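Appendix B. Chain record.
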Amino acid sequence: MDKKGIVKKGLWSLVLAGFTVAGVAAQSSPSATTPGASGAQTEKSSKAGYDSSSSSSKTSSKLGMMDQHFVKKAAEGGLAEVELGKLATEKASSDEVKKFGQRMVDDHSKANDQLKQLASSKGIEVPTDLSAKDKATKERLSKLSGEQFDKAYMKDMVKDHTQDVSEFKKESTSAKDPDVKNFASQTLPTLEDHLKQARSIAPKENKEARMEKKSKPANSQQ
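Structure tokens predicted for this chain:
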């Protein structure tokens, strides 16, 4: 009987020991899983951070590089047309050139305002001052007067609008952004009309300038 008691007592000790080990394992289990949970949380935070930066990038610019380049260049060109148009209304000797200059101010000011709104809605900034090249052109023209100014100004207008029409025509079909494409399409007919008018005025100014140049020697001999 004593041996049986000893055996029973030993068995109970083993059972109690098993429960004790299980309890310890259960208590240590949460701490063991904590690193995994922390890792998952870190991964989640990392993903959240990526999405945020991606969203910020989209907010800062909603246009592709080609469309951005077109918008900025169009805004730059529009500013130049307005400034040179104002100069023409002040310095041109021909009424036709003066009227053309005023049309440049009116039409391009309107287009510039539309372009500013478009650029703002897409999260990009457009130039607010003349480029170095356009400043140089304005300075060169401001030193001329009379028919010399008329000839030089109209020559620049033909050159500028030939390039403008080409760029707007291309953007009206190849722009990725529908709003940019729509702006280019709507503005293109006006630019084409500007070019047509400039081409009709420029030869007259060139002819008058040549006639004036030929008449000067005869007048000087008198």
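Further analysis of this model is presented in Appendix C.
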